[in-house]
Amino acid sequence: MTAFFALATSLLWGVADFGGGLLTRRTPALTVVVVSQGIAAAVLGAVVVATGGWSEAGPQLWFAVAAGVVGPVALFSFYKALALGPMGVVSPLATLSVAVPVGVGLFLGERPGLMQAAGIAVAVTGVVLAGGPQLRGAPVQRQTILLTLIAALGFGTVFALIAEASSSVTGLFLALFVQRVTNVATGGAALYVSVRRGGVALPEGGFLWGSLPALAFVGLADVAANGTYSIAAQHGPVTVAAVLASLYPVVTSLAARGFLSERLRVIQAAGAGLALVGTLLLATG
After folding, report:
1. Distance between CA atoms of 247 and 282, rounded to whole angstroms?
2. What are the TM regions of this chain, as residue ranges (predicted)?
3. What is the pLDDT confidence band of residue 182, given thresholds at 50, 70 and 90?
């Protein structure tokens, strides 16, 4: 069950990242985040009311609040890093986010078996290579490296926090709702500050109403990914769930190849193969 839900997480996050990347080509990134998360919050609010999720309110929701604050900061740092430095460096570095939940799992006493340890090593190596690391080229600004590491730490922290935010299905709906409301509040505040400083909130032609279905898809896919990861982490070793969930860059690369006809470099294809091998080792270990 852990492998299934963790792989579902990587699929959902990979598709959401691909969709979000396309949307930010026409609409400012902060606006994409706020609108997509706002739609997700509205849908989750209806689900919470329908399922009686409010009865699950408790101190554990503070984990969801914390995840909602950290998430937008990580995402903004990631987008800024992508704007400043080569994606071939930023993307592999961002996968270091897996170190946080894996570290938490080890701290809590999880000890993966030999097969699982081998799977973790192979899968992480595959994910890094699938990002297409640039081994040559212009030097990378220190700011780019710093922002990418902040993003990785933030994403990994969200992994760890959301796994602790609930212990039941209805409680998970409530936790995800609280996380999304906090996301919107944090992202909205950042967008307000950006506009006050001369930034742009909408594209030149005004808000692209035709993009609402795509924005809704991105927001809901992200929510679903958080939910499946929480289930995976609660029903199996966090170390395994985190590594399998971190395969989303492979999904994004394959989506870009399928829909945008982007060609995979040899090193990326090799990385995707290694990631799949690592997945099999983890699933059978």
Report:
1. 12
2. 6-23, 30-55, 61-82, 89-108, 114-132, 144-163, 169-195, 207-232, 238-259, 266-284
3. very high
pLDDT at 39: 94
Residue 127: HSE in the Cβ half-sphere, 13 Å Cα cutoff: 27
Structure tokens at 10: 């990587």
Tell me which residue of 62, 92, 72, 118 sits closest to 239, measured CA to CA: 118
Tell me the HSE value of 7 on the side-chain side, using a 13 A CA sphere: 12
Burial classification of residue 51, based on how many CB atoms lie within 10 Å of its CB (0-12 exposed, 13-18 middle, 19 or more buried):
middle
Q: pLDDT value at position 138?
A: 46
